[in-house]
């Protein structure tokens, strides 16, 4: 709620602190104050505010340096930062936004404008928290349902195997379509098991901690490929990896990410005489883009927006097996790294999937 929101004012001007603090207190906010950057950082060790009003121009430690350290504190990821400045220094403001500030206000502050901006950013914070809570509940529900369904499905599979043995040993003649019916039952049971396992994977990928470190993507890609290609006996597959730059990512999550992508490439090239998988990269505007291209079945780009939704499939199970969860996991992992993913494809020619790392 707005009236329980905590606002930290960081400014070396006592008069500004007094006037602004009084205004905010009268409007129902809890106010904390710091007259220097170091004092502000010290306060954050004890309490995390909902919003920080941060003066850019301060001696010893300016607002930009304070902002940088605040954004390095994972406990402050939901805290909004609004710069307070007496001049429109475009370079400083752009640097502030790059560091993670949300807005700025010019001195002298008009009370109505200040309150309106604070109210807007606090509403955004509350909505973001509610959305995160909803995602957590959804993930927990997904994990719970998947886990609860796993055991009954496995028991059904075992009972089917037992029934199959009993029927084969029976002295009574079986209907002509008995074998076909049993085969279909086994297939559907296996499909359900695979779907539940993928849901558990999806849930696990959203709950595992994300601890980014500098990693060599080529090493992760080759390890994932070497595991997957063991199941592709007799196929002609060419994997080409150009020199890739280091990226910052969680090794466990990235291993799952590249496993899902390569698994798709191997699956959708299965009908080609020779499979071609190429991994390239380029760096632009501070982002590293890694692209995985194959010469597989491809798809119509008119349906591309469905690809990253759970259980969405663009090919029938009779063409290619799958559950429709793999790319959803890829998307979620990239978002957890502060990145994104895009895809381009041409039917019968292949697909290019690009990962964008910050």
UniProtKB/TrEMBL annotation:
Q: Where is the Response regulatory domain?
A: 6-122
**GO BP terms, alphabetized:** osmosensory signaling via phosphorelay pathway
Gene3D superfamilies in UniProt: 1.10.287.130, 3.40.50.2300, Histidine kinase-like ATPase, C-terminal domain
| Residue ranges that the Swiss-Prot or TrEMBL entry lists as coiled coil | none
**Pfam families documented for this protein:** HATPase_c, HisKA, Response_reg
**Where is it located?**
Membrane
Residue ranges annotated as transmembrane are none
Matching entries from SMART domains are given as:
HATPase_c (SM00387), REC (SM00448)
Q: What is its EC number?
A: 2.7.13.3
Histidine kinase domain location is 144-358
Protein name per the record: Stage 0 sporulation protein A homolog
Q: Which organism is it from?
A: Eisenbergiella tayi
């Amino acid at each position: 709620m707005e009236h329980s929101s905590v606002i930290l004012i960081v400014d070396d001007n006592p008069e500004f602190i007094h006037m602004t603090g009084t205004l905010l207190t009268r409007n129902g906010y809890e106010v904390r104050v710091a007259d220097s950057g170091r004092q502000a950082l010290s306060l954050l060790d004890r309490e995390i505010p909902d919003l920080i009003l941060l003066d850019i121009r301060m001696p010893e430690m300016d607002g930009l340096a304070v902002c940088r350290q605040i954004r390095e504190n994972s406990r402050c990821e939901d805290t909004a930062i609004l710069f307070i400045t007496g001049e429109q220094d475009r370079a400083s403001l752009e640097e502030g936004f790059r560091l993670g500030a949300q807005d700025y206000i010019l001195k002298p502050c008009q009370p109505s404008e200040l309150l309106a901006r604070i109210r807007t950013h606090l509403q955004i914070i509350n909505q973001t928290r509610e959305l995160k809570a909803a995602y957590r509940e959804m993930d927990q529900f997904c994990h719970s349902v998947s886990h609860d369904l796993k055991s009954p499905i496995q028991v059904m599979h075992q009972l089917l195997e037992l029934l199959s043995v009993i029927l084969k040993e029976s002295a009574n003649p079986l209907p002509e379509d008995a074998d076909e019916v049993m085969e279909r039952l086994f297939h559907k049971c296996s499909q359900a098991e695979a779907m539940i396992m993928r849901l558990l994977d999806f849930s696990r990928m959203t709950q595992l901690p994300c601890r980014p470190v500098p990693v060599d993507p080529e090493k992760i890609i080759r390890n994932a490929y070497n595991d997957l290609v063991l199941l592709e006996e007799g196929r002609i597959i060419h994997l080409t990896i150009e020199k890739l730059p280091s990226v910052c990512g969680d090794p466990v999550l990235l291993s799952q990410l590249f496993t899902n992508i390569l698994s798709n490439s191997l699956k959708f090239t299965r009908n080609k005489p020779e499979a071609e998988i190429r991994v390239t990269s380029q760096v632009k505007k501070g982002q590293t883009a890694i692209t995985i291209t194959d010469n597989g079945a491809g798809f119509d780009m008119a349906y591309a927006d469905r690809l990253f939704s759970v259980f969405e499939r663009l090919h029938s199970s009779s063409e290619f097996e799958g559950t429709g969860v793999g790319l959803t996991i890829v998307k979620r992992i990239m978002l957890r790294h502060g990145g994104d993913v895009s895809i381009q494809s041409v039917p019968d020619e292949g697909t290019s999937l690009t990962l964008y790392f910050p």
